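Let us begin with a simple case.
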Amino acid sequence: MTSGVPTEPAVLDAGELSSRPELEARFAESAHRILADLVGGGAALGWTEPPSRDEVAELLGHVVHAARAGDAALRAAYLDGRLVGLGYWLRYARPTHRPHADLERIAVDAAAHGRGIGRSLTAALVADAREAGIEVLTLDARDDNAHALRLYRSLGFTEYGRLPGFVAVGEHRYDKVFCMLDFRRQG
């Protein structure tokens, strides 16, 4: 904060991130901290146990490589030089599905929730998808992640399916909710 006014997050793409060595050098470690903390707290990010540093580094390496090839977009949100969120989409690999991508993950540091960072990341990734010629951007979320589902709906995503009780976390069962943003309908 400066003069009592909250600072806006800087939302960088993969190219901007790699052009800033001071941020790039700490990116994987900072991303690991965010993801491991969120998953450890029960967040629905695709892991039931916090991912290892190596797993996160490998995942991010894959996403950055795909982004350089035009098959992904990565966004990182920084507040005052500290990573507070990240997200990415990946293009579907099958030739018949190449015009489509899946918004794989949006993660915001718990200490930065409520600051509009998830919205900024998601909006930037939606713009990246549109610019990349993606026709349909899909995602899935656990039904108990009501805040994220509201955010996605507010950005134009619509639900197109649901698998009741599909996600098992210990004794708990959650619906898997499928959403899409169809750019073909938006002209």
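The second case is a distinct protein. As before, the sequence precedes its structure tokens.
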Amino acid sequence: DAKPGHRVIGVSIVLARGRTVIVADTAVHDMPNAEQIADIAEEAAGFARRMGYEPRLAMLAYSTFGHPQGERSERVQEAVRILDKRRVDFEYDGEMAADVALNARAMAQYPFIRLTGPANVLIMPAFHSASISTKMLQELGGSTVIGPLLVGLNKPVQIVSLNAKDSDIVNMAAIAAYTAGT
């Protein structure tokens, strides 16, 4: 069961080139609507804080601030408007492509962007895009991907793939133990 006031989501932690980036939702919501994307963002921001990071969320899409336009990006744009109405206490912006979200020089081309620096939490528009990107990062090398971790549950429960290495299991257990107390 979900903790009271929380939503169950999946997150993966990507460690690459001296950076840590949290990716959500990597395990639960297949094709979330705008309200669910906003919920995922709030839960992911809380997880980032519990892990010791001040969250800067990028709501990802294939487009950046309406260019090119598309139906799938509209859900992400609506999620941003929902977060605006909720008056959340973390940085967020979107919709934007991953390169803009993660690269300060690319961000500089959008002077109206609300993030104070590159994102450390990426909110994916759908489960399949999150799964594809995190597995690709893991397989291409140069990155350590921990997850997917289930967040928002009463008890720590994690999913470990059949091809998990010893280090994957140790990483998952360490995160589960750390987050169990928070």
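The chain has a mean pLDDT of 88. The first helix runs from residue 34 to 50.
Keep these points in mind for the review questions at the end of the chapter.
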